[in-house]
Each structure stands twice: as C-alpha cells, then as structure tokens.
Amino acid sequence: MFAAFDDHDPDSVMAEMAEGMTFDDPLQGEALTRDEFYEVCVGFFHVFPDARWDTERLLTDRDDAVAVQGTFRGTFEEPFHGMAPTGESVALPTVSLFTVSDDGITAWRDYWDLVTFREQLGVA
C-alpha cells in the first residue's frame, strides 16, 4: 500500500481500503470518510510532489491489526492547511496503525509530531 503512495496513485491506494474505512491523523479534526480520504490523497501528492514513505518496522499482534513505523519524506511545494509553501523538505518519523478485514483496511490512524512537521517545513 505504501508503494501506491510512493507512486502517487490515489486509485491504487483506495483499492486497499474497505468501504466505510476511516482515516485520522494530527491534522484532521475528526476521522475522515473513505471519500474524504481520497480527496486528501489527491491533494497531498500536489503539495508534496516527491512524497514517499520509508518503512522501517512492520508489526502485527493479531489477524486484524498492523503497525508500521517509518519516515515520511517530501518537499513542501503547494499551499497546505493554511500554510504557504516554503520549498523545504521534511523527514518526519511516523507510526501508522491499521485495522484490516477481508475487505481491506477499515481504519487508518497516523501518529506524528505536528511541531516537528511545522519546524521542518519552515512554518513554525
């Protein structure tokens, strides 16, 4: 699935998502629906045209839960959540927790530090 992100292919990303899935991260006020998440993906690839995730660790403890530790990397090239682009690059440590079923990913929750993100982007 992260390969689809690295390829900037929102349709392939969504192919891994179950109907009714939710997404949440530190920038969202509340969990996004599947359709809202698709729109976030499309926009995100414009904001960070070289976006990629480097997976460092993959953990599972049950049949329906996966945790991925990694680093998001990208260059801030377009306006994003009220922030003007700076051209700065980010290398942001992340943890993503997934709940999965036979239908695909049903919930995705990202954990990362917003202060570090803003500092690296030059908007702190």
Topology:
Blueprint (H helix, E strand, L loop, with lengths): L1 H5 L3 H6 L1 E8 L9 H14 L4 E11 L2 E11 L13 E13 L2 E8 L2 H8 L3
3D architecture notes:
With 124 residues, the protein is α+β, with helices and mostly antiparallel strands. The protein has a single domain (2-121), classed as Nuclear Transport Factor 2, Chain: A (Roll), CATH 3.10.450. The protein has 4 helices and 5 strands. Strands 1-5-4-3-2 form a 5-stranded mixed beta sheet. Strand 4 and strand 5 form a beta hairpin. It is globular and about 40 Å long. The mean pLDDT is 94.
What is this structure, in a nutshell?
With 124 residues, the protein is an alpha+beta fold.
Which CATH class applies here? Alpha Beta
Output the helix-strand order: HHEHEEEEH
Radius of gyration: 14 Å
N- and C-termini, Cα separation: 31 Å
Q: What is the domain tally?
A: 1
Q: Got a strand count?
A: 5
Count of DSSP-assigned helices: 4
Relative helix content:
25-40%
User: Structural class of the helix and strand makeup?
Assistant: alpha+beta
Q: What is the CATH topology?
A: Nuclear Transport Factor 2, Chain: A
Please tell me the overall pLDDT: 94
Strand order of the largest sheet: 1-5-4-3-2
Looking at the overall shape, the CATH architecture is: Roll
| Structural shape | globular
| Largest beta-sheet details | 5 strands, mixed
